[in-house]
From TrEMBL, chain A:
Annotated localization: Endoplasmic reticulum membrane
Chain segments annotated as transmembrane: 67-86, 106-125
GO terms for cellular component: endoplasmic reticulum membrane; mitochondrion
GO annotation (BP), single: mitochondrial respirasome assembly
Keyword tags: Endoplasmic reticulum, Membrane, Transmembrane, Transmembrane helix
Tree of life domain: Eukaryota
Similarity remark: Belongs to the EMC6 family.
Taxon lineage: Eukaryota, Metazoa, Ecdysozoa, Arthropoda, Hexapoda
Record's protein name: Blast:Uncharacterized protein C20orf24 homolog
Database matches in Pfam families: EMC6
Membrane topology of the entry: Multi-pass membrane protein
InterPro entries named in the record: EMC6-like, RCAF1
Species per Swiss-Prot/TrEMBL record: Drosophila guanche
From TrEMBL, chain B:
Protein's UniProt name: Calcium load-activated calcium channel
Source organism per UniProt: Drosophila guanche
Main localization, broad class: endoplasmic reticulum
Record's keyword terms, sorted: Calcium, Calcium channel, Calcium transport, Coiled coil, Endoplasmic reticulum, Ion channel, Ion transport, Membrane, Transmembrane, Transmembrane helix, Transport
GO terms for MF: calcium channel activity
């Protein structure tokens, strides 16, 4: 038993170290096998952060307002992660402890990042309009 | 209006690096922490794998072994939390001082406009020290907390200081639920 565990462990660590960022990115955008679970979760985590910031900028530029903006972000963010992991990469959700584990990976951090960029762009770009609407 | 918000983002990046730097000096570089961390990580992974393999096995010996491992992991996790505690106090003090300084600088100032009206129990934070009843006004502290939430965790992860997923899943240290409780 212990021999088996050690082999898997060494293999897992080895593959994590040998793959560079470039390789991981290349594997992330194509359909590939993910032997190292941590690596796949990292891909989800970081792409989610970037995605959250991009959505925040778009919401701020549009500008989207109110509860709708929050719900839309949560829906799109979780939906895309779900579709990406289950439909595109075809990973076995049970190996990760269920869909929920995948969907919530890095959600709060990306949500905070999204809120910050949304607030900053909304305030920066539309300050005069907001103030005019408030004073009228 | 850009200046205030960008300044707050900058402040939170600086404080995040400061916090991590302080923790590195006090905790991360110490031998004791590194030893404990590798130990916890190794044990968590081992335990997770063992649970996967023997999932619903009713074998008493296996169960006992898993329980013993969980107990060991719990003890190590507790030791790790105790080691971290020292720096938590130090950074806690430093941050309270810094925060009260920034709070007085931004006192009563609307730093941003929120594109949504926060729910009532967040309004106390987002409207702290601000005059008026307009809850889309955003106070310094709210934006700072949001920035810290995203920036500090990402910096931790980037620098490799964040606890591994296996370790945090198997038990959250002193205050976390005992491992295996939800299984």
């Amino acid at each position: 038993m212990s021999t088996k565990t050690n082999t898997i462990e060494r293999h897992g660590n080895g593959s994590a170290k040998s793959s560079t960022l470039k390789e991981i990115c290349a594997r992330a955008i194509t359909k590939s096998e993910w032997e190292d679970k941590e690596e796949f979760l990292d891909v989800i985590y970081w792409s989610r952060q970037v995605f959250g910031i991009i959505l925040g900028v778009i919401w701020g530029i549009v500008p989207l307002k109110g509860f709708l903006g929050l719900v839309l972000f949560a829906g799109i963010s979780c939906g895309i992660v779900y579709l990406y992991a289950i439909n595109f990469q075809n990973v076995d959700e049970e190996a990760y402890g269920g869909v929920w584990e995948l969907v919530k990976e890095g959600f709060m951090t990306s949500f905070a990042g999204f809120l910050v960029t949304w607030i900053i762009f909304y305030t920066g770009l539309h300050y005069d309009t907001i103030m005019a609407a408030k004073s009228s | 209006m850009w200046s205030d918000t960008i300044l707050i983002v900058f402040i939170s990046v600086c404080t995040a690096f400061l916090g991590e730097g302080l923790t590195w000096v006090l905790v991360y570089r110490t031998e004791k922490y590194q030893k404990l961390k590798t130990e916890v990580e190794k044990q968590s992974k081992k335990l997770e794998r063992r649970k996967e393999i023997h999932g619903d096995s009713l074998d008493k010996a296996v169960k006992k072994k898993i329980e013993r491992d969980e107990e060991k992991l719990k003890n190590n996790n507790r030791d790790l939390s105790l080691v971290k505690m020292k720096s938590m106090f130090a950074t806690g003090f430093a941050f309270t001082a810094l925060l009260s300084m920034f709070n007085s600088i931004f006192d009563g100032r609307v730093v941003a406009q929120l594109p949504f009206t926060p729910i009532s129990w967040i309004q106390g934070l987002s409207h702290r020290n601000l005059a008026g009843e307009d809850y889309t006004d955003c106070s310094f502290i709210f934006l700072y907390i949001l920035c810290t939430m995203s920036i500090r965790q990402n910096i931790q992860k980037m620098l490799g200081f964040a606890p591994s997923r296996a370790a945090s899943k198997q038990g959250g240290g002193l205050f976390g639920a005992p491992p295996g409780q939800f299984k």
